[in-house]
Amino acid sequence: MARPRKASPEKLEETVSALIAEYQATQNVDCLTDYTVMQRLNISPRTLETYYDGEADKAILEDNNISDEDRERYTKSGYRQAIKKLVEFRRAVCVQHIATERVASGWIFLSKQPHWGGFQDVQRTESRGEQRITVCISGPDGKPLRE
Q1: How far is CA 133 from CA 10, 38, 136, in A?
Q2: Residue 77: its H or E element
Q3: Which of 5, 38, 74, 76 is deepest in the core (most CB within 10 A)?
């Protein structure tokens, strides 16, 4: 028999909503960290990771003892939905701070973390298939042979 779950999807949703409201009231970014989520729910990092990657929802849906009503509920609003809400809020906060703060380097770093925004730096070099080569031929006196 499996161990009982410490936090239901509803409890996770309630916790995420409370943390978002707390951040909006205090502007304290600690409210949005994974550590705070784990503390409030009394769960391990591994458990939180199963929420992020959808393993918890998948395990519940594969359970043969789950009722059709519960199966439908987990399909529509399982752990993944609450986690998605948290990640999207974090992303919005990062973008807002990057756009409004003079020194936004910390927020830029956060925005590149997978669960805080997942933004990536992309460097592109466009050449349109063209290459330019400039050749200068100098004589023994250092003067160009052709101009």
Answers
A1: 64, 58, 10
A2: helix 68-77
A3: 74
CA angle 85, 51, 39 (to 5 degrees): 85
Rounded distance between C-alpha atoms, residue 142 and residue 124, angstroms: 38
Phi, psi for residue 80 in degrees, rounded to 5: -60, -35
pTM of the model: 0.70
Say if residues 90 and 115 touch (Cβ distance below 8 Å).
yes
Distance CA 17, CA 15 (A): 5
Q: Which residue has the tokens 């990640």?
A: 87
pLDDT (tens, 9 = 90+) of the chain, 147 residues, equals 455 556 788 888 999 999 999 999 999 989 999 999 999 999 999 988 888 888 877 777 777 677 777 777 766 677 888 888 999 999 889 888 888 877 777 888 888 888 887 777 766 666 676 777 776 666 666 676 655
